[in-house]
Every structure is written in structure tokens, then in C-alpha cells.
Amino acid sequence: xxxxxxxxxxxxxxxxxxxxxxxxxxxxxxxxxxxxxxxxxxxxxxxxxxxxxxxxxxxxxxxxxxxxxxxxxxxxxxxxxxxxxxxxxxxxxxxxxxxxxxxxxxxxxxxxxxxxxxxxxxxxxxxxxxxxxxxxxxxxxxxxxxxxxxxxxxxxxxxxxxxxxxxxxxxxxxxxxxxxxxxxxxxxxxxxxxxxxxxxxxxxxxxxxxxxxxxxxxxxxxxxxxxxxxxxxxxxxxxxxxxxxxxxxxxxxxxxxxxxxxxxxxxxxxxxxxxxxxxxxxxxxxxxxxxxxxxxxxxxxxxxxxxxxxxxxxxxxxxxxxxxxxxxxxx
Length: 331
Ligand SMILES: Cc1cc2nc3c(=O)[nH]c(=O)nc-3n(C[C@H](O)[C@H](O)[C@H](O)COP(=O)(O)OP(=O)(O)OC[C@H]3O[C@@H](n4cnc5c(N)ncnc54)[C@H](O)[C@@H]3O)c2cc1C
What we know:
The chain is 25% helix and 26% strand.
């Protein structure tokens, strides 16, 4: 394990903001983690785990040790469709490889940037599917005890863009075990997919291709325009709260959630209503096609993007009485 000093993080975050890590290491083998954590505790350094950097925003230089998970391995386990995948594997590449090997279910989650290890952190979701549907267990290194253990799905506390891993900073994901389908069973309940396939007859490959096409037309490519996808989560409110908001905003949309009494309000719709699309604050801007996506026009700092995000959430609070939680991790 090699520890580097004064590492520029610009290429390690999809916003492309400039920040310097005082110390930086890449984990190729799970046992390197022991060494990295020992180094941090010996030098009294704070640590920050990093995958592909597509869901984080660095506000400043980082004074501690950045630990980037880069362990690679995909293992077929004994049961059909059961896979153990190392944290450092690329998510989208995994989706492609699974499809080509006749393993299905992940096609709705195509083109989500980042690593496999980060997928359970916010329970990645898109086009009506969430990763928790396929997770059997998550192997973690627990920095509180210095041990490796397996957490069953039921212990991961998955919910909308959330899990135990978002709150327990001592848990570092080493691998994820997924139960995929060996027969195609395309999920096209999400409106955009229903519209694309009105007959309901569709293959997994067609869902994959359509999800990739829609995403590429709506979301900016971070390699061209720095961004981290949706910056905010959609607010979840009680049906009563929704009804009272509807008196004020008659065309306010909502979507069902897993819980009967709660509904999800699309944050993009609220922001769009207040005219945020395309607005700029210096080099930080709201994407012209998607009000939930903040972009770096070239030379924005993490702080520029964060201040713009704060203005946006304040406007939602004062106009609708709703607070927006960030989906992106602010560091
Ligand atoms: C264009 C674009 C589109 C996106 N679309 C979606 C979408 O449709 N749905 C969606 O859910 N997300 C989406 N995202 C967000 C992002 O891609 C996902 O959250 C992804 O899982 C982040 O992976 P990462 O490896 O880049 O994580 P990072 O950004 O590196 O890390 C994110 C968080 O996870 C923690 N973390 C990372 N790896 C580990 C690990 N091994 N163990 C413990 N903690 C870890 C980090 O400390 C940090 O808190 C999008 C982002 C972009 C740029």
C-alpha cells in the first residue's frame, strides 16, 4: 500500500472541482485497508472513503487521508445468478457484463456512474428499480472493531436513497453479493419505459438500450460537464401535508412510496416551477435540461456549487415549506 501526499482530487470527483488531499491511498486488496486505517490512526488523520467520486462535493482541501476503494473481482457463487462483486468494480461495466452473460435485473440501473461498493450506500435507484432488490449481503470492514463481517440485506436498513452505510461511517464496503435473474423479467412500470413500450413486450436488452438513450439525452456527461447527477433527494411527505400543499399549488404532482401514508414530491418539478433551470452563480449553474442537476461550467469551486444549492433549497423552503435533503455527500 502506497500513501501519497498532496494529491489533486480534480480527476477523482465528477464535479471536477479542485481540492487537494493531504494524504491519499488506493486499496487494491481488502487487507490494505487495515494498513491504511492504522496509518490514519497513528498520524491522527481523519479518513474519507472514495469510490468513483460521482456523488460527492469537496468544499475545501481535505486535511486527512482519502481511501479510494479499487479492489477488483467478480466471483460466480454456487447458486445460479449469485455473484459476489468487489467494491472497486465499475457499476455500469458490471451491468453490461451481467447482460452479456445472461444475468438480468440490473438493466434499469444502466449508466449510473461510480463503483459497485458505493451502490448500497445510497441504495442506487433509477427507472423504477433499486439495488436493494438484488442485494443478498454486503461484506464490510468495520473500523470500530478492525474486523471483516457480512451484513445480510435486512441489516442494511435500505430505503429511498438511504442505508445504514450512510450513517455508520465505520462501515467500509468491501464487496456486494447480488442475486440476479437467470431469466429475463423486464421492469417497465416506470412511466418513461411504459411510454417507450406501449405493447408491454420488451427484452432486457431493449430496456438497457432505452434507459441509456434517455439518460444520455437528459443528463450531462460528467466527462464534458462536471456534475453529480441529482443534487437533492425528492421530499417525502404525509398525504395530509401533500393535500394542504395542493391547495396552494393545484397541479403539484406526487408519486406513491413503499409506505401507504407517504408520497414523494418531485424536487425537480418544484425547482422548475421556481425557474431554477439554467440559472448561474459564477461558474456554478443549474443544468438547462434538469433542475435537479447542478453543473460546474469549468472553474467552479465546491463552495460555489454548494452556495447555489443552498439558495435553491432556501427558495423551496420559503415557497413550499419543504426542506430539501442533499443526495450528494458534502465533504
Ligand atoms: C450523471 C450522473 C447520474 C447519476 N444518476 C444516478 C441515478 O440515476 N441513481 C442514483 O442512485 N445515483 C445516481 N448518481 C449518483 C452516483 O452515480 C451514485 O450515487 C454512485 O453509486 C456513486 O458511486 P461512486 O463510486 O462514485 O461513489 P462516491 O461518490 O465516491 O462516494 C459516494 C459516497 O459513498 C461512500 N462510499 C463510496 N464507496 C464506499 C465503500 N466502498 N464503502 C463505504 N462507503 C463508500 C463515500 O464515502 C461517499 O459518502 C448519478 C451521478 C451522476 C454523475
